[in-house]
Amino acid sequence: MLGTTCESWRPRLPNGRFVYLLIGGLTMDLFSKRHRLVVAMLVLFVPLLTGAKGKGCQGPIEGGEAGPGGGGVAGGEPASCQVTGCSGQVCADEDVVTDCEYREEYACYQEHSVCERGASGECGWRATPELEACLGGGEPAPCVVTGCSGQVCADADEEIVTTCEYREEYACYKEHGVCERGASGECGWRATPELEACLGGGKPAPCVVTGCSGQVCADEEVATTCEYREEYACYKEHGVCERGASGECGWRATPELEACLGGGEAAPCVVTGCSGQVCANKGVDIVTTCEWLEEYGCYKEHGVCERGASGECGWRATPELEACIEAASGE
């Protein structure tokens, strides 16, 4: 009996009284006072020996104090986070009083922010890529080539509207342009020598004497056979390697070089045309209109009429002449 629980050895009758009370009452009537005393003591102490306490068989409930409904006090949800501060720049549990000095970065919280309770349990702004970039803590948008003709280098998120009028210089950006973010933080074309030269704002590469016997004048090194000819010595003694009026590298047709090569002296180049705007071989009939253009004055002031590397007469492409023509034509 000592190994059982109070509920297992105390079956209830319909009237709610315990069996052991009935047995105790009958025993008291049948036995002597001594026996009645023993039975009464058993009736009183057996429940204590089997684990019953002053509260009956009800014991403490795990995790909290026992009660009529059982269980402890349930914890409540934490308060929600809210946007506060004079400029809406703070994310906190409650209203926060701040000064009203405005900063541009505060607009980032309004446009890209998410106010929430983080893993630490504290309220704060979610570190989204958009918010980080807006605050300056992330990578800026990449630079992209845009515009109707691909002539503009700008931020990827910047709206660019251009006309579709095409200009030859736009091809320079396609061939030589490098679209990147510069030291100033703005997108733009890298000022490479190739791009500058293509746009007309830089000097072309110098001409070089090349070939196995030094008989070639070109923009870059050229591979040739090493068969030697006597005329090659003429280039070494009398040759002037330069970029001619046509823009190509070649030997200047000097009288000395012409004579050495056995071709005799070529006819001199002369300035002709109604306004002196043409450089041509002497003795060649040149007919032009007499319409005056401002750029014609450039040939008179800065022009050098000579025979170029190609063997034809023309104006030497000096920086002064090119700058004057560009200014006069308004390009």
Automatic annotation (TrEMBL):
Organism: Sorangium cellulosum (strain So ce56) (Polyangium cellulosum (strain So ce56))
Name of the featured protein: Uncharacterized protein
UniProt superkingdom: Bacteria
